[in-house]
Design goal:
Distance between the termini: 21 Å
CATH class of the largest domain: Mainly Alpha
Number of helices: 9
CATH architecture of the largest domain: Up-down Bundle
Strand content: 5-15%
Structural class: alpha+beta
Helix content: 55-70%
Number of strands: 4
Length: about 210
């Protein structure tokens, strides 16, 4: 299988974490023709990464790709052992995508603008993080082992800290001891730590750090 993504993509990163945790080998490749190219739009009509190429066809959308990988490779299980835990994992992951990432992407436009604009975006991120904190249940985000929720939040946490350092605000995650403890713990897991280290290396280079 080939994962078309760009090195800095947090959505590609969550799939890389999942694959590593499951012992899967994915060939990582840049989008054919590059982002925005007619060649890549022919593969994904929305023009976004990641895309998973399989022997049966291409799969778009990171959450759908992750479900596909779980269906094809159910062990170790990263989405829950009961219907309720499965729902909790999906809820947390969806909340990250619907509420945290849109606010986080707002930093790209607010960073070079007025202080009030930046403060508004930081407040939106803080609100999303506060609400995610109410969903956290267990040593990991959704129980006692790594799940797709952890895979989704880890890159988002990294980029929140990165922008906080660059733009001079305190990361909203620091207001929640449960999240800072979780972050220290998951970074010690090789599947997570290696991908986050890659993102940190990329972010240190003079290039765009977040790609959808």
């Amino acid at each position: 299988m080939i994962l078309f993504t760009v090195p800095s993509s947090p959505f590609g990163a969550r799939i890389r974490i999942q694959a590593a945790a499951k012992g899967l080998t994915l060939d990582i490749a840049e989008p054919p023709g590059g982002l925005g190219s007619p060649e890549f739009f022919a593969i994904n009509p929305f023009g976004k990464v990641p895309v998973l190429r399989t022997d049966e066809g291409d799969i778009i959308e990171s959450a759908v790709i992750q479900e596909y990988l779980e269906d094809c490779h159910p062990e170790p299980n990263l989405r829950g052992t009961s219907p309720m835990q499965l729902a909790a994992v999906r809820t947390f992951t969806r909340a990250v995508d619907l509420y945290l990432f849109p606010a986080l992407f707002g930093l790209r436009g607010a960073g070079g603008g007025e202080a009030d604009a930046l403060a508004k975006v930081v407040e939106e991120i803080g609100t999303a993080v506060d609400r995610l904190a109410r969903l956290k249940a267990g040593d990991y985000l959704c129980g006692s082992s790594l799940t797709l929720a952890d895979c989704a939040l880890a890159p988002a946490y990294f980029y929140t800290d990165l922008f906080a350092g660059r733009l001079g605000f305190r990361s909203p995650f620091e207001h929640h001891q449960a999240f800072t403890t979780w972050w220290a713990h998951v970074n010690g897991i090789p599947a997570v730590g290696a991908v986050i280290a890659d993102l940190a290396s990329i972010a240190a280079a003079p290039r765009e750090v977040v790609s959808e």
